[in-house]
Amino acid sequence: MRRAVTVWAWVGLLAAAAPGGAQVRPSQPSLKIGFISSRQILQQTPGYAAAESTFSKEVQGFRDEVQKLQQQLDSAVRVFDQQAIALSPAAKQQKQKDLQQLQQKFEQRSNDLQGRAQQREQELLQPIQARVNAVIQGLRAEGNYALIFDADAPGSNIVAADPALDITSKVLERLKQSQ
């Protein structure tokens, strides 16, 4: 229900912004709407498979490093647990402090690697996404579309749509032509 309200809110905003304050109704041909499947488009865009493969290989290296660090931390905790009974209170406190520092180093490194992975993903996908967006904008202008929704976007408000409004195949065709 909320999704339908949001879609109609968009339609209402377009109607309010119509030239000369004219009322635009969704059934009038002047309000042309389309939608795409960005997931399908990306997966079929030339260059995407290579970028995804490169990213997967690089991220696997990051995962391996994080796993190794986690194993080191787990091992240190096990050793501490085994020795805790025999340690003096001061030694026990020092070992706990050392474990906390090791945990902090692990978390910092993990966050650094995650940030690098996100940056690398952006570097690899940005040119592809820019090309896709340019094609979509071109089709929007050529076809006089008022709106083009992404059916795959998180929180997409498209509940159901006429398949005739799907311009995914047109985007893919144009991308393949521009190769």
Write structural notes for this entry.
The protein is mainly alpha-helical and 179 residues long. It has a single domain, classed as Skp domain (Protein Binding, DinI Protein, Chain A, 2-Layer Sandwich). The protein contains five helices and two strands; from the N terminus they run αβαααβα. The chain has a two-stranded parallel sheet. α2 packs parallel to α5, α3 runs antiparallel to α4 and α4 crosses α5. The longest helix is centred in the middle third of the chain and has 54 residues. The chain is elongated. It starts with a helix and ends with a helix.
For this entry, give a set of tags.
single chain, 179 residues, mainly alpha, Protein Binding, DinI Protein, Chain A, two-stranded parallel ribbon, 2 strands, elongated, disordered N terminus
